[in-house]
Amino acid sequence: xxxxxxREVRLAARPRGPVTDDLFEIVEVPVPEPGPGQVxxxxxxxxxxxxxxxxxxxxxxVPMPSFEIGAPLHGPxxxxxxAAPGSELSxxxxxxxxxxxxxxxxxxxxxxxxxxxxxxxxxxxxxxxxPTALMGIARGAEVRPGDTVFVTGAAGxxxxxxxxxxxxxGAARVIGSTGSQEKADRLIKxxxxxxxxxxxxxxxxxxxxxAAPEGIDALxxxxxxxxxxxxxxxxxxxxxxxxxxxxxxxxSAQPPVPTPIDTLSLLARSITLRGVxxxxxxDLIPEWNRRFAEGLRDGSLTxxxxxxxxxxxxxxxxxxxxxxxxxGAVVVEL
Length: 334
Hints:
- The protein is α/β, with parallel strands linked by helices.
- It is about 25% helix and about 25% strand.
- Strands 3, 4, 5, 6, 7, 14 and 15 form a seven-stranded mixed sheet that branches. Strands 10-9-8-11-12-13 form a six-stranded parallel sheet, sandwiched between helices. Strands 1-2 form a two-stranded antiparallel ribbon.
- α4 (about 180-190) links the parallel β9 (about 175-180) and β10.
- α2 crosses α9 (about 285-300).
């Protein structure tokens, strides 16, 4: 039986610095009645990501709509169809869509993608950031057998998968960066990293030079700033450097600081530096889902993530993600 009301998380105010709980409000609203061609979904899982902090600002360079004050936030979610009059969907179907941050949602049928309920061992796995990780490794950094690969932000939802994928693509040495010794130890013991440099434990370039004495061949950069500069300094001739994220800017309360680049040095070493965004590589999503489902079942891939329970935990989930409290993706089970 469908509930009469449900809860959704709305943006109460724009942040002036870090994410805080008072920027959100949880509101109880009536469950809508779907009309022809519409789908009512009961959400079961939703994902949070660092980009959501950027979308809390009034405007950004990210090619996604910013959150609006007084309106529910949005993001990836998985759920079950409750009603879908006049569509090919049926009650009970497992679907994914982009209107998370609420227990129920009403969408046009075209905005919903039906999922095979037995395909992934865990429906939350559809909320991984694996497509971005695969894009950065395969098409951005073009990782090749024998490469030494540096993944910045290695303990996040993207980086914790990027290291595993780099190994599948034949990387001989995978180096990551993170913010604590505890995460560094886990990346090495559990997720296939050979070495990890630690933000705040000394100059990144010196740490990277010790971890990669023969230089790096490929960079998967989630961070920018000092870590990008260190990678540029250690890049071998012909290295491929992929800019996938900009956490140094996204999660900083300070104005963006440009990263200086010696273009003559790039030219002399024939280095490729490119930015890659998933909206240009959406064809990788089904490929990733196939790869991930197979890897989870045979043990060749793992899904590092934290799971919080209840819609009321969604603001905390985003706050703790931006504070670096978790390793891997952050999922809220509704």
